[in-house]
Amino acid sequence: MSWTKKVLRVNLTEGSISEEPLNMEWAMDYLGQRGLATKYLVEETDPKSDALSPENKMIMTTGPLTGTIASTAGRYSVVTKSPLTGAIACSNSGGYIGNEMKNAGWDMIIFEGKAPNPVYLYIENDKAELLPADDLWGKTVWETDELLHTKHQEPQLRVAAIGRSAEKGCLFAAIVNDLHRAAGRSGVGTVMASKNLKAVAIRGTLGVGNIENPKEFLQATQDGKKVLAENAVTGEGLPEHGTQVLMNVINEVGALPTRNHREVQFEGAGKISAEAMREVREGDGRANLTTNAACFGCTIACQRVSTVDKTHFTVKDKPEYQGSSGGLEFENAWSLGTDCGVDDLDAITFANYLCNEDGMDPISLGATIAAAMELFEEGYITVENTDGVELKFGSAEALVWATEVTAKGEGFGKELGLGSKRLCEKYGRPEFSMTVKGQEFPAYDPRGIQGIGLAYATSNRGACHLRGYTVASEIMGIPEKTDPLETEGKAGLVKAFQDATAVVDSVGICVFSTFAWSMEDIAPQIDAACEGDWSVDRCLEVGERIWTMERDYNLAAGLTAMDDTLPKRLIKDIAAKSGPAEGRVNDLSKMLPEYYEVRGWTPDGVPTEETRQRLGL
To answer: Please, are residues 550 and 459 in contact by the beta-carbon 8 Å criterion?
Structure first.
């Protein structure tokens, strides 16, 4: 029983805080974190309500394995309705605050209403209070973290905060914890700002107990760590290179979206790759990569820590950026680099610093800047819109400028903060927006990797690789190799990845563990930790139940099968110009009907009554 079985409910409108028992009947059906918090949101809110209204709720949540000795068990999630997509939002983060929340004795914190003035929540074990945050409003994440540590004089305090971008209404604002980790996607930080909630600061010293079978759990977690250590990806590739190991790989297979998906290969990929991060620079005699790091309890340690060349234009007048901070992962190196045609490693790293400092999703930011660059180059926006800045593909200066003004919500940055869908619609070229359900694409082109296109189109939170990472199979051969250019069988592959990932996100471990672990490795850890019988089949049924519940929420919110699509650029207008997929578009129309069928949904994408009954929905 590794749940704490306690929920903290915070009514921001009234300024009241109360404790209540976790609904264990729901926990048996939805496990925890992503699944269980979504169940609470579904039961307590109207899917049609405005995401930025007080009626929307925001739930910070852990899983039953969070804070335990299981490897990678430091995850927490934020569940709410997304202001970017209007769909369900669940954004997952590592670092240490998930463990701290669990150690303070809480499975979940439910925020409802809106505070009349800025506040932050301070938690010390079972003590919780709302405190004024007027002095923190307008501060960056980094400033907020420092001020709260100074005020409470507790070096082990863990802080999750929003930056200025959220306060200014950026629709893809993140919640940043531990300075460099983030619940990054879908605008969860924007929802937090709409509630006048600046930060959550937690100190927990109670420990995590309630393990159902400690001896079996110890053995299961030891077995799991051995599998991770002996795997080439989790034991070697990710510790050595981080996710950036993929930059050259994805470029070579012709699936690296370049210059707003106009191309599928980037000539500058080698300059911003994992290998380039290790090269000693002429400017200051150091490498971009300082070291690797790990989240709580993680034996993989894929996190990058980087230093920007102090002689580079980005930091000459900014001494605070000359130290080390969160380095580039594949997704942000792609979005801020490749998608914008920029191959300046230090400028990209600096822009990523800004995302950490002011709480922005770098995937949506970079993809939106890329769309703006295409609008600029095609003449739909001009220097009159951009304060004289030539917003062209390949310009490192333009990238940094666009990032800075978006973080501050100034001038054209206010428009960039709307995301690419609204930006492109405003300037009359909606087809320039590379989004699904309003959320920007990650770093894999659906023309070169067919299955990931189906995964994007059907993702419940909009375009997302972490809702069904078929790239593992299609490119890396995990758990078995499938042809990335083949469409047959991809419906079943996508469903399998989606259901399994829902379990991983709900238990409190990192999805990167699944490069080595199958459900046969994960289920024994859940079974030993939690009451009840958690077989592989039961876990996968829970994953399917979670996925279908999210689908029902989206349908109730007004989304339909028409939203399960990809931009015309990728399925009709522009075939891949180079690489193995040259001449191909994504064949979504071949895969989608089969996907609905294997899901047990109608041809219109609605779960049948039989499916709902089978899953207990």
So the answer is: no
Tokens (6 digits) for 527: 């079974």
What single-letter DSSP state applies at residue 331?
Answer: H
Query: What is the Cα–Cα distance from 433 to 448, expressed in whole angstroms?
Result: 19
CA dist., res. 108 & res. 131, Å (int)? 20
pLDDT on residue 154: 95
Taking the complete model, does pTM exceed 0.90, yes or no? yes
Give yes or no for a contact between 179 and 358, defined as CB atoms under 8 angstroms apart.
no
Residue ranges in the chain modelled with pLDDT below 70: 1, 320, 322
Q: Which of 52, 70, 85, 47 is nearest to 464 (CA)?
A: 85
- Asked if 66 and 98 touch (Cβ cutoff 8 Å), the reply is yes
Question: Could you tell me the two tokens for 10?
Answer: 């915070």
Phi, psi of 200 (to 5 degrees): -125, 120
| d(C-alpha 138, C-alpha 167), whole Å | 7
Enter the CATH code of domain 6-203: 3.60.9.10
Supply the pLDDT for residue 513: 97
Looking at the DSSP assignment, which residues form a beta bridge with residue 38? none
Nearest residue to 385 (alpha-carbon basis) of 411, 406, 404, 408: 411
Residue 367 exposed, middle or buried by CB count within 10 Å (0-12, 13-18, 19+)? buried
- Tell me if 66 sits within 8 A of 99, measured CB to CB: yes
CATH for 258-433 (1.10.569.10, 3.40.190.10, 3.40.50.2000, 1.10.10.920): 1.10.569.10
